[in-house]
Specification:
about 350 residues, 12 helices, alpha/beta
């Protein structure tokens, strides 16, 4: 099975086949084999968004569900975000969304097919570097974290896709002589009417609303009602699933990702039922596809495990902590039974 106008790529290479599409049959063309540790991600910049746009919109239109993730210039005072009152937390989130910037938007489009004995999942992931036209606050800790994880600020400032955050005197999607790609993109996501997936996504959804849709409403209840109206197929939060349904010991994203990756690898080795995931690639945008290392396992540090990091993915000592911040060691120490 292939995406319309694209190829099916599995961790071991391209599967030669054809697929009937609304515009006819699209033959698969052999592609370079992928390592099982790599995931193809399409980098979207101001300089290539016109060329990538058709593929991006097509992927969204035919998605079974869409995962969204943001990189931000900061979150403000964490104490305010952790207040007991939900309304107080929402007030802090609104303040952060109005004063901080969205630096990157990740859009992962998943399509599920059921014309095989086991469901197959086809994925196309895009990473859009963004640059706000308005001034915004940057926090050293947030920028340091991004730099440590390979974020290129030179490229973001030179070639980021511009967007204008919402203000009270703006009329969103109306009476605008010029449109912005990111607002059009968000409109396409809404029009797809498929479930949206996030991880601990309340803050991300608030930033998306403020930056690409409209000024955030004054109360949490109105915001939630708006989300229900906007995403009629629902919003799935993987942190909530991990914490309240699966009851994982730790629920930060890297922990869950690496744990699920280990289980998938074990299932393949042991011949057990597993998810079948393939990465689709459109030939027209192949030059902007980066192969990102995701599954490589880290070696043992030989240090005592930092319990704070192991359980929460965060340690106030940061790099100054003398204990291990190895996620694989954290997973092994929890030694949960497989489900």
């Amino acid at each position: 099975m292939t995406e319309n106008g694209g190829e099916r790529i599995t961790p071991t290479g391209t599967v030669p086949e054809e697929r009937s599409t609304p515009t006819g049959t699209v033959p698969s063309v052999p592609a370079p084999p992928l390592s099982e540790t790599q995931v193809p991600i399409v980098e979207v910049l101001a300089s290539n968004i016109k060329e990538v746009w058709p593929s991006l919109v097509h992927s969204i239109k035919y998605s079974s569900f869409i995962a969204l993730d943001l990189e931000l210039s900061g979150l403000g005072d964490r104490k305010h975000l952790m207040k007991k009152s939900v309304d107080d937390r929402y007030t802090a989130i609104v303040e952060a969304a109005k004063s901080r910037g969205v630096l990157a938007l990740g859009v992962s489009c998943w399509r599920v097919t059921r014309d095989t004995p086991e469901p197959e999942y086809y994925v196309q992931t895009y990473n859009l570097l963004l640059l706000s036209r308005d001034n915004y606050t940057v926090e050293p800790d947030a920028l340091q974290f991004l730099v440590e994880h390979g974020f290129d600020f030179n490229k973001q400032y030179k070639d980021g896709v511009s967007y204008t955050p919402s203000t009270e005197d703006m009329i969103i999607f109306k009476e605008k002589k010029t449109t912005e790609p990111i607002r059009d993109l968000f409109a396409a996501i809404l029009q797809a009417k498929c479930p949206v997936v996030t991880h601990n996504g309340l803050i991300d959804l608030a930033f998306i609303y403020q930056s690409f849709y409209a000024p955030l409403p004054p109360t949490m209840s109105i915001f939630v009602a708006d989300l229900q109206d906007m995403f009629k197929s629902g919003i799935l939060d993987t942190k909530c699933v991990a914490e309240f349904l699966i009851r994982e010991t730790a629920t930060y994203l890297e922990y869950l990702f690496r744990k699920c990756s280990k289980r998938l690898k074990d299932a393949v080795t042991e011949g057990k039922p597993r998810l079948h995931i393939s990465f689709s690639e459109h030939k027209a945008i192949k030059q902007w596809v980066n192969l990102v290392q995701c599954f490589a396992s880290s070696s043992s540090s030989g240090k005592e495990l930092c319990e704070s990091f192991a359980n929460h993915g965060y340690c106030k000592e940061g790099k100054g902590c003398k204990k291990s911040h190895n996620v694989d060691e954290a997973i092994n120490s929890h030694d949960l039974p497989r489900y």
